[in-house]
Amino acid sequence: MELFSKEGTPVTMRWGILGCGDVVRKRVAAAIQTVEGCELLAVCRRDHDALQQFCADFSVSRGYPSADQLLADEEIDAVYIATPVAMHLPQALASLAAGKHVLVEKPMALHPHECRLMIDAAKEMNRTLGVAYYRPFYPVLDRLSELMQTGQLGEVLAVQIACSAPIVANEDGSPPWRVEMKHGGGGPLMDVGSHRIDVLLRLFGEVVDIRGICSRTAPEEVENVANFVLQFADGVQASVTCLFNAVQDPDSFVVIGTKGIADLSPLNSGRLILRNEMGDQVEQHAPNPNFNVPLIADFVAAIEEDRQPQVSGEDGLLVNEVIEQIYRDSRQAT
After folding, report:
1. Which of 190, 223, 238, 308 fits 312 for a cystine, CB–CB 3.0-4.6 Å?
2. Using one digit for the tens of pLDDT, what is the confidence trace for 182-191?
3. Whether pTM exceeds 0.85
């Protein structure tokens, strides 16, 4: 995708990244550098040595030790926020106030009211706001929607999902921010469960009932196991298990209907097994090798076309609202 000005000349969307952690190293930086019409101009990290190493590894010309310095760079058009969840709100508001478009990591914020503040600020500044849920761009989910819409699964009855994320200690042996409530706001429900909630809302629409239960190894810690059930307006029920530190990530996603079963496990693979009276039919619908590339491309296209990105701030808010209700139901049950 190439961007053009009103005069028809090519332009470049110049990006800055706040936070240079694992997800940025694995996918985000390379995704920005891959999408045509984008340039990764600057990054920010407080650790001087780590910042210099990142800039060298990804050939980034500008490294800033503070977010304020990066946001003061007038040549930056858009900011990708990849910091702990507790920092999303203040950094998004500061980025928008500086006139930048904002794409923020998931979950969007700690609480729904923070999401609303971000949405309102983006509207006030006339800037684009998006959230980094990349699974809506999976071709296998488009295929699943087609199977449901054409009746090949019959009446959809239920969805079964299980997912996990590893917990890796920091280099100094300290726990990562994801297991600290003040930084992440919760455990696997916030971390990996949020991705699945986003997918479910897109597939099935309005949620009419929510039940949840979360387990903690200590009262002051985030949950390490979360189970919840969502019931949708059309009667479909989705049961989801979210874990930290399972022996492996099951990444299962199974849709059960009256005429067929669609097994998308593991979801990240793009494989789909359609099970019906004719037997098993195996299909392959592989995602982009870098999951973030379609997300970045759509976000940039949304800015150029003056439309909402496919994963908007409003979408992020809906996910956070469901998460909050799951936690509320879990507390009431204990």
Report:
1. 308
2. 999 999 999 9
3. yes
